[in-house]
Amino acid sequence: MSSFPYTLSDTGGPALGLIVLQTDETIEGDILRLFRGTPVRIYVSRVRAGAAVTPAMIAQMALDLPEAASMLPQATRYGAVGYGCTSGTTLIGVDRVAELVQSGCKTDAVCDPLSAARAVCAHLCIRRLGLVSPYRADVAQPVSDAFETDGLHVTRAVHFGEEVEANVARITPDSVIAAAREVARHGDIDGIFLSCTNLRTLDVIRPLEQELRVPVFGSNLALAWAMARAAGLPDIPIGSLGPVDSADNRSAGAALPAA
């Protein structure tokens, strides 16, 4: 066998990193779907997570985040790295999540679903938020509390009381729709957040917006939107009705990518 010369080149296209919970069966497909048709390269790592979502499990996950981030390809600098856990971000802390992720990979921007959702609320001028969570109260309530800032209030929240992640991934879209309707029926709201990266939300967002006439967004859509912005990429459509205080913007808007 003889040696043969070769050349090197950049792998091409901006790179994004995504850290996914071991038990999450939804976010990876959603993120790939939302960035479909773009030149983005998406690299995924998994972080250890228990089968049941509890504050203790999330505390342990924080210890494992640097290792999970370090499992992303080290030769690449990422335009943004997303950490895919809304409740985890809430209990660990936004700044701490960023610190832990950046200790393991090269990126200037760490995005998370909680910060992303709050940014979406500001972008769409949402002040009275309705919230749907799949989890039990001691995990769901801190997420709701985290939105009570900067003039934003959660005026109505419901939760399914689920603890097992495998079940969260299997909550039916019809159940999510029914919960969102309940929030809209009994809350004075101008937007709805469907919390949790493992909850199947992408295909119910547009129908709910058309029915309820308020912006609706989930953790994965918000995270993808924030990652695109942080990396200087074209915006991902969010809030097809436009800002809630601008009737002129309440048009059909851009649709989400089909499954």
Key phrases:
4-stranded parallel sheet; Rossmann fold; 19% strand; isomerase; 259 residues; MaiA/AMDase; alpha/beta; globular; Iso_Racemase_Enz_sf; 10 helices; maleate isomerase activity
Please describe what this structure looks like.
The protein is an alpha/beta fold. The chain folds into two domains: 15-112, Rossmann fold, CATH 3.40.50.12500; 114-249, Rossmann fold. Helices cover 39% and strands 19% of the residues. The protein is built from ten helices and ten strands. The chain has helices spanning 27-34, 55-70, 86-92, 94-102, 113-123, 137-146, 165-168, 173-186, 202-212, 219-230, and strands spanning 15-21, 41-47, 77-78, 80-84, 106-107, 110-111, 128-135, 153-162, 191-194, 216-218. It has a four-stranded parallel beta sheet, with helices on both faces. α2 (55-70) packs across α3 (86-92), α3 crosses α6 and α5 crosses α10 (219-230). The chain is globular and about 75 Å long. 48% of the residues are buried. Residues 243-253 have low confidence and may be disordered.
